[in-house]
Amino acid sequence: MKMSDHSDALKTLIMQAPVSRGDRVRDALRQAILDGVLPQGAPLVERDLAEMLGVSKTPVREALKQLQSSGLVVANSYQRVSVRQLDEVTVRAVDDARLAVEPQAVHLGVERHGATPHTGARQALAEADGWLESDQPAQLGLANRHFHRELYVLCGNEWLINFLDKMEVLASFIATAGWRVEPRYTSEAVEHRTILDAVESGDGERARVLLREHISGASRALLRSLEQDAASAAENG
Question: Which SMART domains match (predicted)?
Fold first, then answer.
């Protein structure tokens, strides 16, 4: 599909988004990528995007730099920019990074706060539930990331928090790509509630185990699909 075919969808997204023009462009492009409106591997040309969005090239250039920093966008040696094409190596690397840090951060948060209700996490769950029946995976994915963040910030360690914050958008990208292979967002919502129950009850070890299982399970179908694609490409190559 040509990028020009996505013009109406992108214009709608940029009109919906709040704050500054640069932020609107970034958020519109991010949502278009997470929703699959701009598919993996799609070229992102400043001039074309600026024309479609009705803005100058400056906010588009700034937005692409931010999206590149988040991992959604990549630039090759010729500085041609495109949507990241997920592969098995990338998905496993992101999973490994999250598994090494996020469950431990949540465990530390439980140790720090003990058994106590967490209103922010409950509100994030309610926000995610509101998107479950919609056809907007980007919004659901970002709401889920909000829930995860509400849990890991409880650790109070700015280094762990900053590391995990940098992973969040790419984690959303992997999640929404996985839902196109196997739409398991309803079961993931159940897992979120179980994890939060463990956190609020003060059972840090159970929360850590459940979160590890949750992170691993979320990308399992996507990894199988990527492995099959790689095997098919090798056979046909």
Answer: FCD, HTH_GNTR
Contacts 24+ apart (CB under 8 A), 124-133: 124/149, 124/150, 125/189, 125/192, 125/193, 125/196, 128/189, 128/192, 129/189, 132/185, 132/186, 132/189
- At the top level of CATH, the class of 3-83 is mainly alpha
pLDDT in tens, 1-23: 454 456 666 655 555 544 578 88
Asked whether 175 and 168 are in contact (CB, 8 A), the reply is no
On the 0-12 / 13-18 / 19+ scale of CB atoms within 10 A, 173 is buried
The rounded distance, in Å, linking the Cα atoms of 16 and 12 is 6
Phi–psi pair at 43, nearest 5 degrees: -70, 145
Question: Quick one: pLDDT at residue 1?
Answer: 46
Structural contact between residues 133 and 153, judged by C-beta atoms closer than 8 angstroms? no
**Each residue of 75-101: pLDDT tens digit?**
987 779 999 999 999 999 999 999 999
**pLDDT average, residue stretch 188-212:** 97
Domain boundaries, the chain: 3-83, 88-229
Average pLDDT over residues 20-46: 91
Q: How many residues does the chain have?
A: 237
Quick one: how far is CA 115 from the chain centroid? Answer: 29
Superfamily holding 88-229: GntR ligand-binding domain-like (1.20.120.530)
Among candidate residues 78, 49, 74, the one with its CA nearest the CA of residue 61 = 49
User: For residues 159 and 167, what is the distance between their CA atoms, to the nearest angstrom?
Assistant: 13
